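Board notes (copied after class):
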Amino acid sequence: MNRSKQAGLTKKQVAYEGIKNLIVEGEFAHETPLVERQLCDILQVSRTPVREALRELAAEGMVEVIDGKGVYVKRPQFKDMIEIFELREALEGKAVRLFVERINDADVQLLKQYMELQEEAYQKNDHKSFMDIDMNIHMLISAGAKNGRLEAMICAIYSQIRQMAISVKDDKILRDQAVAAHRTIIEAIVQGDAAAAQNSMMEHITEVKEYHKERYYLL
């Protein structure tokens, strides 16, 4: 995390965001031990905020505390994956419905721009850009729902989704599914059809869940 992003954050928040980003971006692989002294050096904070951050990340399921051994990056399990997708079905379905009901032109235009950029990344087989834009689309919809608590819950889930994405790497089938689903969802949003947008979002997440269940059941 650069200094400009650290401005206004408490030391605990700096530690929390820093450790989470290191995990999400794959700097620490699954089951890697997280050494407090090393994290302090990387993030330039003391041990107390690092310990507090690790406790919070453990509560969220991103790290695991093993008595007598230490703290490790948690490897997502099959049960974790199913629970996360079930939450997504409920939360993101509601979020896109609220997005349509509380819509504004700026959000719609940005959503269209993201879709164009994702199409470009798809054609170029640029997996990293594709996934980054994919996250931006879903985060824009959650923010556009204008419900702070709902947005916070979805953001917490997406940290774990990115963590799982490190395991599955690139996958053309998932990219095909995402592009097709996003086109349908955005078309419903543009038409102002909240029910269709909600149904399309839930179908999209269910389709991805079922594919993960079949192919990535060893997570």
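Comment from the instructor: The two ends are 28 Å apart (CA to CA). The chain has ten helices and two strands.
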